Amino acid sequence: MDGSDSRSSRWFSVGSSRASDSHLAGAEAADAALEGRAAKLLIVFASDRYELPSLLDGICEQADDTPLIGCSTAGEIATSGPGDAGAVVVALGGDGFSVATGRATDASADLRGAGERAAACIGELEERRHRALVMLTDGLAGNQQDIVRGAHGVLGAGVPLVGGCAGDDLKMSRTFQFDGREVLTDAVVTAAIGSDAPLGIGVRHGWRRVGEPVLVTRSEGNRIFELDEQPALDVYLERLDAPAAARTDANEFTRFALTHPLGIGRRSGEDQVRFIGGADFEDRSLACIAEVPPAAMAWFMEGDRDSVLEATDAACSDALMPLDGNPPLGMIVFDCIARRGVLGEGIEEEIRRLSSVAGRVPVAGFYTYGEIARTHGAGGFHNQTLVALALG
After folding, report:
1. CA 216 from chain center: how many Å?
2. What rounded mean pLDDT belongs to the chain?
């Protein structure tokens, strides 16, 4: 599906494929997105079931030397709806866009430095009135907020930041990032986008507090050791009455935790949601994707289909506000895999609502292990939220 603006020859298009052959899937998705045109940027979201080098070869053979970034997923999103084990290609083109890409490898060795290095491409971007940086990271590399802080140090307050953490279909083992034909891991890849028209960002989560708060009495980085001076895992399992399988099996625990995040209280009154990605059954600790500060007040959280879909509508509406009533060319969305767990079959409805609220425009994205949305301040890493980028 294609969105375009004849005034500046800008266009935004999405192609997808579920072909089983890796090279063919890449070629089909790229061909559908490009329709024979020369693009300024390709963004690729693909299942790690593919032979990823072959997938990228198939894409690049259709796109020549077009700059490309992307990542592996926990599910893909296209205008036609959500999917698994597929590939989605987003193409941006026309004189009204300018693009510069960046990367940082070995991110876990220096997360803040990786954010700085990857964001440095903003200095190569042709000047435009509106700018944003799209960032795709390895969420298993460590505290993602440090990557965001590093990027903020380069971008300053004037350039919004948006993106997400790559997935591996819930194996929680190894994720991949793409730069051109290269398949990376433990990396950060970025695309600085300049546009003649506004770029809008919306972020909402749809979770609500359950029961009484707990105090984080011992934590280090993204690991929680004690809640209310008790082993964190024990408190979590008992307060949420977790099923027997989740108490002893790591995979079952991860599936249970997907729909039972932790909310960290903030002075603004809005909770910062933390995805609990795993547990250590020996030291009884919880592992989150981002930092949980000691002495924080926290709540266990839950959501349902209605609350999650209401957040979808709100995030989309927030992203459209900077466009001053003009329809967007398209939307890129970064949707936490946990929200998909709550929606179940309702994920089809979520994608329909995204496209409908935006005016039936092309939509693309992926299900993530964490989301990035910073429009002000140095913060900007989120868990279990929907982040939407609208391109005016």
Report:
1. 26
2. 91
* Among 105, 328, 81, CA closest to 198: 328
Residues 6+ apart with CB under 8 A from 241: none
Going by pLDDT thresholds of 50, 70 and 90, the confidence category of residue 348 is confident
- Which amino acid belongs to residue 219? S
Please give the C-alpha separations between residue 191 and each of 67, 82, 119, 161, 236, in angstroms, as whole numbers: 9, 24, 8, 10, 38
DSSP 347: H
Closest CA to 68 of 47, 94, 45, 42: 42
Task: Tell me the two tokens of residue 68.
Answer: 């490309």
Report the amino acid identity of residue 135: M
**Residue 223 main-chain phi, psi, to 5 deg:** -115, 130
Quote the pLDDT of residue 383. Answer: 72
Q: Exposed/middle/buried for 307, CB within 10 Å: 0-12, 13-18, 19+?
A: middle
Residue type, 81: G
- Low-confidence winner among 44-48, 87-91, 110-114, 368-372 (lowest mean pLDDT): 368-372
Query: Helix, strand or coil for residue 345?
Result: helix
320: amino acid identity, one letter: L
Interatomic CA distance for residues 260 and 236, integer angstroms: 9
pLDDT digits 0-9 by tens, 2-13: 776 644 589 999
Q: Judging by DSSP bridges, how do beta strands 381-382 and 297-302 pair with one another?
A: unpaired
Tell me: pLDDT of 148 over 90.
Answer: yes
The whole model's pTM is what? Answer: 0.86
Distance (Å, whole) CA 342 – CA 79: 21
Strand 363-368 to strand 330-336: parallel, antiparallel, or no bridges (unpaired)? parallel
CA atoms of 189 and 195, how far apart (whole Å) = 20
SS3 3: strand
